[in-house]
Amino acid sequence: MKTAVILAAGQGTRIWPYAEVRPKAMLPVANKPVIGHSVEALIELGFQKIIVAGHEFADQIKNYFRNTEHVTVIDVGRTKGTAATLEAVREHIDGDRFLVLYGDSLVDKDDLARLIKDQDLDKPSALVTPLGEESSRDWIACSLSNGFIESIVGHPRGRATHRFAAFAFPRSFLHYVQHNSGVFSNIQVGMMPPMEGYLEMSLVDYMNDGGSIPCVEAQGIFVDLDKPWHILMANALMTEKLCAQLYENVLGRGASIHETASIDGYVRLGTNSHIGRNVIIKGSVIVGDNTTIENGAILVGNAVIGNNCYIGNYCYIEHNSAIGHDCVVSHAAEFGGVLMDRVYLYHYMEMSGIIGTNTDIGAATVCGTLRFDDGHTSHVIKGRREYPRHFANAVYIGDYCRTGVNAMLMPGCKIGTYSVIGSGVVLNEDVPNNTYIRVKQELERVPWGPEKYGW
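RESULT FIELD:
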């Protein structure tokens, strides 16, 4: 098997506000787009032709892989679902068998290797991952029996145990893809599917025609970046994995560690990067090129930090944080979560969550992460109220945003792209794209002077 197809034409409406200026496949995971991890794994596994089927913002994917051999990005236009997206690149697929991945999923390379190895060449096969604590109602789910898919149901109320992570198809399976009905009909009574052609429905048709589907259960990391908190989950897991692979300090050309730095772990420093005076690191850290960490910066736990960053002046970075490229975290700023590229955090601010590209956080901007009832914040995603088990109380700030001094963001707030939260605002609701929220105050003037003090 030498050909792989990555499906990346979805709109990403559930992950608002992070797919407004990029495709979901370009969401950063440990400072690399999620699709970058997939392509890297496929190349290491020997795939010689990787087809990316994209649509909106596909040019960003083309730009990212402009110097990567074996990758072809095709804009398939707006399709009616994942089956139609795969059908749109049929003529580019070589060989008798090929792999299919989703562009917004983080999949472990070793699991993909097991899927490729453990296969019946004449049958479609699937890599599946346990639902665990996730609700089956959020996914097209399946149940297993003796190493085969037993049933596939769309967003069931229960009974299902797994969901799909990747597929290996014989070329003959494209017959089922071509004749996809355009609606997922294998649902429980009372459910309401959208008019969309899901690839998994073609698997249902195959099973209804008497076919059997062997499966491989994932053992490594798998995250489907479907909602904002999944970005935090993927970054935390990948940061933990990458940092666990460090067994000694690795310093690039011109890199250095000052003798006063205290490091309880290992560091990998890129070219011309430096850890300066009085830095405290309680974990392992991976740092890109031309980055400086100095002046009492405190990193509590593992972290991945990009190129051309400045981290210093007694700032505090939480465990498993991912800091993008060209970022500044300085002057007693506290942060935990994911910073995308070109984010500035200054002057006694405290943030926990995701901050989008090119965002400036004003002095003393703070977020709340602990509710008075010690509970988890509910989120409304496309009109549906959801209760994430992790990162529910984080804040989610979109790309190209700003906050003014002393802004306060309550747990779980999401701020749309190109928006501003003005000085002194106490925010306790989501903010749409292209919106400026500011305080409207009423001032009262009263006469005052020495006479008030008895003169």
